[in-house]
Design brief:
Elements lengths: L5 E4 L7 H5 L4 E9 L5 E8 L5 H10 L2 E3 L1 E3 L2 E3 L1 E9 L3
Antiparallel strand pairs: 1-4, 2-3, 2-7, 5-6
């Protein structure tokens, strides 16, 4: 790989009312493919959280904007890991 994928914007997932009521905290870890076309695909949940937080994280990851990785001047797909932390603010 000549250059790595570069994230331009990483939308934050919503903290659900159910998660707030249950005081759920922690980190959702997702492994996904950042495609050469600039789309996040094939999301694998490495570590999830209850009360809708995993689903919120997946939704946020799908809205992520990035510049694809390159190899020899051409865009290529690559795996990346995303983490979304949830806690009381």
């Amino acid at each position: 790989m000549t250059t790595r994928a570069r994230v331009l914007s990483k939308p934050e997932p919503q903290y659900t009312d159910e998660a707030r009521a249950k005081a759920v905290t922690g980190t959702v870890v997702l492994r996904c493919i950042f495609t050469a076309e600039g789309v996040v695909k094939h999301l694998l949940v490495v570590r999830g959280l209850p009360a809708g937080l995993t689903e919120q994280s997946i939704s946020a990851a799908r809205r992520l904007k990035f510049v694809p990785a390159t190899k020899d001047g051409r865009s290529v797909s690559t795996y990346m890991q995303l983490e979304y932390r949830f806690g009381f603010r």
